[in-house]
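To close the chapter, one final illustration. This time we ask the reader to focus less on the individual chains and more on the assembly as a whole: which components sit near each other, and how the overall shape emerges from the parts.
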Amino acid sequence: MKVGVLQFPGSNCDQDSLHAFATVLGVPARLVWHKEESLEGLDLVVVPGGFSYGDYLRCGAIARFSPVMKALKAYAGAGGMVVGICNGFQILCEAGLLPGALIRNDCLEFRCETVNLTLAARREAWQASLGANPLRIPVAHGEGNYRIDEAGLAELEANDQILFRYADRPAAIERRGNPNGSLSDIAGICNREGTVIGMMPHPERAVESFHPSRDGLPILQTLLKLAGHR
Amino acid sequence: MKIIVTVTPKKNVLDPQGAAVQHALESQDFPGLKAVHVGKIIELEIDEQGGAGWEERIDRICRDLLSNPVIEDYRWEKAS
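The assembled structure is written out below.
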């Protein structure tokens, strides 16, 4: 098992992702610079968060043209396991590896907080490891408002591609559960095969005892399990 | 020559920036305001000898990079 973490100019969750897999979970992992043209030998590729290329024009729009993205398309096309987190999710949408797009949070604020996340898909591997209880996972983004047209949303639902939703919070907490106004409270989706995943919350920032929770661990472990079954 | 590309949010896509500007304008005594949309303009300066098919090439870059067709519309014009 080997994990690769892509690194674009402006990525800033690359080291966190590497730490979570290599140090916390003890899985061999390496950084993959955006100029690299091959992803051979990797079982799971992480497209990390950050502000790739300054997020100029649109989030993720410029990263999409990196040499490594050509390799990523071939890798994903061959059934390779890919997860895009935050800016990584935006990049996967811009690259057409996942449907839809992420726009400005409806509140117009950058939201940095811990959200309640629930598993929305009825996919076996995920149900077995996450169960029904909400997970406490941090978010940190200004553009996490997932949008897709009506037909696209119906397709996501019909194919069980909505992986995570923001869950409501106890009434005692003023702010609503959904931090960005995303359509249908969507926090994460996958392709039909379940091999390309995009999510706004950061599981790699919920793996240490000093983090807000360690609920990111079962998410990362499920990714490894899925990658191992290929 | 100069090409001006205008990118705007699609009409049926939520436009939080437009809504925020609209709220601000509504508090500025601006009667008759119906809607505000915030987009961006991109100016391209191109060699006059752009070669055959340059108009198609501009359409292509508008679709592939300058706008995201999922959420945005674009139009372009040659500046005088």
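Chain A has a mean pLDDT of 94. The radius of gyration of chain A is 16 Å. With these observations in hand, you are ready for the problems at the end of the chapter.
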